[in-house]
Each structure stands twice: as structure tokens, then as C-alpha cells.
Specification:
By secondary structure, the protein is an alpha+beta fold. 19% of the residues lie in helices and 32% in strands. The chain is built from 4 helices and 10 strands, in the order H-E-E-E-E-E-E-H-E-E-E-E-H-H. Helix 1 packs across helix 2.
Length: 268
């Protein structure tokens, strides 16, 4: 019986080298959850008997794998050159498990206290088949997360209000976003007669349109698209005229539609 790693966790693994591109939202979610991101090659894989694989989903097989670490894309020094963990992998249409040996992977993991030779994958889908394109994507998300100026996580919405302008159809909506660090984040939506409505993100106390909207495929976009609530809360709109409340809500929906869904490429 092969000893299992302490606090190890299941993970699905995509083997095909021609697998579709991983959505940015999924990569960023994994990167933010991981203490370490590992570029490694599977050295050995021992299948766990189904009776011992508690919680194994239908159509999956569980392995205990050891991998040779080629590079630590993110993480503290001191990780062993060879580490082990549990992984669940999909069976093929004939019900056969894939051959994992010599597969190169990128794993998103956490350290296991007192066990430098073991890691715990952060989610069931936290191990991905390596490719040059994926490697570049992952290194980009890691750089964004480690940037001292990285946008903070969204906790909710503070005050939101709309101020009509002097001309018909003119006005501005300001929405103040609550963050995990308390750092200022706000949204500005501008309405001008004869112009398309536009919005801007501010990551400081200065609220203007200079920063423009959050660009897709950036941490700022992820924080908003995946962190903002679906509607403005009633508590954010107190003591305002009904028409201004309706406009503020409409402007908020405009921002959400512009951001698009927080799609990580998984069903459900």
C-alpha cells in the first residue's frame, strides 16, 4: 500500500496536449488560491483501489503521483525536488485510465505543514496539462497577483448615487466598491447627450474617467466580473430620488454587461 500524503486532495487532470485554451477567470482563480504554482513532470503514478477512493466521481480514477519539479513558478523556497499528491483523472470512453507517467503538468497547490515532499492541490481542477501557451498565461497571472499595486478583492458595494446634469440625458453615477483591504475602488458611469454611455474604474481616491474601463484578461477585470453582486443593494441607494435610484441601477447593470460573465469554462 502506497502511503497517502497528509491532507492531500483530489484533482482532475486534462491530458490532451491539444486541449482548448484555459479561460482567464479559471487561471486567476487557481492562482489566487495557490501558495505555489509548480511546473513538473509525472515520475510515477499508482492507482488507488476504487473502494479506498472515497468520494471519487463516476468516470474518474484516482492516483497517487510523484512528480519531478522542474520550476517553481510561484512559491517559497524549500520545496522538495520531488513531491507527491493525489489526483483524479478522467477515464477514456472505454473506461480505461490514462498513462500519466512522463506527462508534464502545471499544478496549483498549497504546502502541507511539516511535509516538504507533499503538496495539496487547491481545487479538483488545479492540475493542467502543460503547454507553452499555458505556461506564458500562468506566469502572467502570477505576476499580476504579486504586483504590489494589484487590485484588491471585492467585498461588496458601499454608497452609490446618480447626479443628473443640466442637460436632458446628462448625468454621472458613482459607485463605491468595498474591498478586502479597504483600498479605494470606485466606478464612474458617464452619460452625455449625443454620446455613448461609458464607464471608468478608479483605483485611488481620485475619481475620474482617465483610467477607462477594466480591460478583459486583467486582474482588475477579474475582481469586478467575479466579485461584484448581481444588483445594487438597497442600502447603497438610501435617501435618493426614485428616478436617480433607477438610473443608478441601470448604470450598474451597464457596467456588469460591459464586464461580461465570470466564465471559467466549466459547466454549472
Amino acid at each position: 500500500m502506497i502511503p497517502l500524503p497528509v491532507a492531500a486532495q483530489n484533482a482532475r487532470m486534462v491530458i490532451a496536449s491539444d486541449s482548448p485554451a484555459i479561460p482567464y477567470a479559471r487561471l486567476m482563480r487557481l492562482t489566487l488560491s495557490a501558495d505555489m504554482v509548480i511546473d513538473a513532470t509525472v515520475r510515477s503514478a499508482a492507482r488507488i483501489a476504487p473502494a479506498e477512493a472515497i468520494g471519487l466521481a463516476p468516470g474518474m480514477a484516482r492516483f497517487y503521483v510523484t512528480v519531478d519539479v522542474a520550476a517553481l513558478i510561484r512559491g517559497p523556497a524549500g520545496l522538495a525536488a520531488r513531491v507527491g499528491y493525489l489526483v483524479d483523472v478522467p477515464l477514456d470512453p472505454r473506461g480505461r485510465a490514462p498513462n500519466l507517467k512522463r506527462q508534464r503538468v502545471i499544478a496549483f497547490a498549497r504546502a502541507v505543514a511539516g511535509r516538504p515532499d507533499q503538496v495539496q492541490l487547491v481545487t479538483p481542477d488545479a492540475q493542467l496539462a502543460w503547454s507553452a501557451a499555458l505556461d506564458q498565461q500562468v506566469r502572467g497571472t502570477v505576476r499580476e497577483v504579486l504586483d504590489p499595486a494589484a487590485p484588491p478583492a471585492v467585498k461588496g458595494i458601499g454608497t452609490a448615487f446618480h447626479v443628473p446634469g443640466t442637460l436632458p440625458g446628462e448625468g454621472e453615477t458613482q459607485i463605491f466598491v468595498q474591498t478586502a483591504t479597504g483600498a479605494p475602488v470606485s466606478l464612474l458611469i458617464l452619460r452625455r447627450p449625443g454620446e455613448d454611455r461609458r464607464w471608468a474604474l478608479a483605483l485611488s481616491d481620485i475619481i475620474d474617467e482617465a483610467g477607462g474601463p477594466a480591460r478583459p484578461g486583467t486582474l482588475a477585470w477579474y475582481r469586478l466580473a467575479c466579485g461584484l453582486p448581481a444588483e445594487l443593494p438597497e442600502t447603497s441607494l438610501q435617501s435618493q430620488e426614485p428616478d436617480n435610484v433607477a438610473t443608478a441601477r441601470d448604470d450598474y447593470r451597464f457596467v456588469l454587461n460591459a464586464l461580461g460573465p465570470c466564465d471559467d469554462g466549466r459547466a454549472g
